[in-house]
């Protein structure tokens, strides 16, 4: 089983950048596809970005496409979310989630799925 810890959140001005990290414990990290979700105050949790086991396939929500980049470093058991050109509407708690993937190209983007592990979340606040 894998356990996840997010870090890298904080307060940033609009137009700024942050890099979130999702660090995993466990020797089988490379068997998991990783998804970033976010939840703004008073709103439902929504998909932000996803990456396959291999790292070769990624997906983004339309609202973040072109501004966010997801990547993984299996040697460090870590997935990153580089967030550029941040907007006040990006303010949310960001969560990473892991789901075992039988195929290396698979990624998951639905919050309705059952994920094998979730992190505790990291707060991102973008001021205008």
The coarse overall form would be globular
Output the radius of gyration.
14 Å
Q: Tell me the span between the first and last alpha carbons.
A: 40 Å
How helix-rich are the residues, as a percent range? under 10%
Which structural class matches the secondary elements? mainly beta
Could you tell me the number of beta strands? Answer: 11
Query: Mind summarizing the main beta sheet?
Result: 7 strands, mixed
Strand content: over 45%
Which secondary structure elements does this structure contain, and how are they paired or packed?
Elements: E1 3-7, E2 10-13, E3 18-25, E4 32-39, E5 46-51, E6 58-60, E7 68-73, E8 78-83, E9 92-100, E10 117-118, E11 122-127
Parallel strand pairs: 2-11
Antiparallel strand pairs: 1-3, 3-8, 4-5, 4-9, 5-6, 7-8, 9-10, 9-11
General description of the model:
Helix content is 0%, strand content 49%. The chain has strands at 3-7, 10-13, 18-25, 32-39, 46-51, 58-60, 68-73, 78-83, 92-100, 117-118, 122-127. Strands 2, 4, 5, 6, 9, 10 and 11 form a seven-stranded mixed β-sheet that branches. It has a four-stranded antiparallel β-sheet with strand order 1-3-8-7, with no helix packed on it. The protein starts with a strand and ends with a strand.
Task: Describe, in short, the structure shown.
With 128 residues, the chain is an all-beta fold.
Descriptive tags:
single chain, 128 residues, seven-stranded mixed β-sheet, four-stranded antiparallel β-sheet, globular
């Amino acid at each position: 089983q894998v356990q996840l810890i997010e870090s890298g959140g904080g307060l940033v001005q609009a137009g700024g950048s942050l890099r979130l990290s999702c660090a995993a414990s466990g020797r089988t990290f490379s068997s998991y596809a990783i998804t970033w979700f976010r939840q703004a105050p008073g709103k439902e949790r929504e998909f932000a970005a996803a990456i396959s086991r291999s790292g070769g396939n990624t997906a983004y929500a339309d609202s973040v496409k072109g501004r966010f980049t997801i990547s993984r470093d299996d040697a460090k058991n870590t997935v990153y979310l580089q967030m550029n050109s941040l907007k006040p509407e990006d303010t949310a708690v960001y969560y990473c989630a892991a789901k075992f993937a039988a195929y290396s190209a698979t990624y998951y983007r639905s919050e309705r799925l059952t994920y094998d592990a979730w992190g505790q979340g990291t707060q991102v606040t973008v001021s205008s």
